[in-house]
Amino acid sequence: MTQADDVVTTSSAPSGTSHIRSFVHRRAHITPSQKEALDRLLPQWSVAYRCAPLDLDQAFGRSAPTVLEIGFGMGETTLKIAQARPDDNFLGVEVFNAGVGALLKRIDEAAQTNIRIIQHDAVEVARDMIAPDTLAGVHIYFPDPWPKKRHHKRRLVQPPFIELLASRIKPGGYIHCATDWENYAEQMLDVLSHVPLLTNTADDYAPRPDFRPQTKFETRGLRLGHGVWDLIFTRK
Ligand SMILES: C[S@@+](CC[C@H](N)C(=O)[O-])C[C@H]1O[C@@H](n2cnc3c(N)ncnc32)[C@H](O)[C@@H]1O
């Protein structure tokens, strides 16, 4: 992705606060079939961002444990996990048009009913739409690493956001992060370890759980010779 030097802040925070965005808006290529899926399927499988708590039972048409996935990219991992865990709901949040189109297409082709999408900044979704103590889990897989030091402020895994997410998880629920950037893995371990509501399930990094398949970005990282680090913490 393009990593611009500009720092975009949002002024839409109801509390009057603003935050540095973890993404930059870009005009990325979208295929005709992703565009077609966006036009045809977005109303069926997506929930619009609103500054009000989302009724999860209503959004999914059933009451089930709900996992929030942040930055699902092209959604191939989201679909595989949703297929493997039919009794759970998956709320995927992504800002990238082509990715949202790609996941909509996968949902349609697989006739998968336990995924909903919100196309919006996940920081605002977690803050405004997810009530405290509601999520069964949070997945953050291979978030943009922002490798340059001056861009580290854009990384998603920072204390305020992880504290916010921890407050949205039910006691006993989990947060699972993975990265192929060693320096980001160290930051994740430091940030997650210092959130009072969270407990590490491992001494430091966790083994990759069977339910997480290899993601697209992980495959790219492995090709580049990177390692992979999983972190799984539970909510006290
Ligand atoms: C490096 S990709 C990883 C995609 C996927 N999880 C994988 O492992 O293949 C990170 C994704 O996070 C999305 N993203 C970054 N910041 C976000 C935010 N604040 N809210 C929603 N999505 C975000 C980006 O658009 C991008 O698609």
UniProtKB/TrEMBL annotation:
CDD domains: AdoMet_MTases (cd02440). It comes from the Bacteria. The gene is trmB. Gene3D superfamilies: Vaccinia Virus protein VP39. This is tRNA (guanine-N(7)-)-methyltransferase. Catalyzes the formation of N(7)-methylguanine at position 46 (m7G46) in tRNA. Pathway: tRNA modification; N(7)-methylguanine-tRNA biosynthesis. S-adenosyl-L-methionine binds at E69, E94, D121, D144. Its EC number is 2.1.1.33. It comes from Pollutimonas harenae. It catalyses: guanosine(46) in tRNA + S-adenosyl-L-methionine = N(7)-methylguanosine(46) in tRNA + S-adenosyl-L-homocysteine. Keywords: Methyltransferase, S-adenosyl-L-methionine, Transferase, tRNA processing. GO terms for cellular component: tRNA methyltransferase complex. Substrate binds at K148, D180, T215, K216, F217, E218. Belongs to the class I-like SAM-binding methyltransferase superfamily. TrmB family. GO terms for molecular function: tRNA (guanine(46)-N7)-methyltransferase activity.
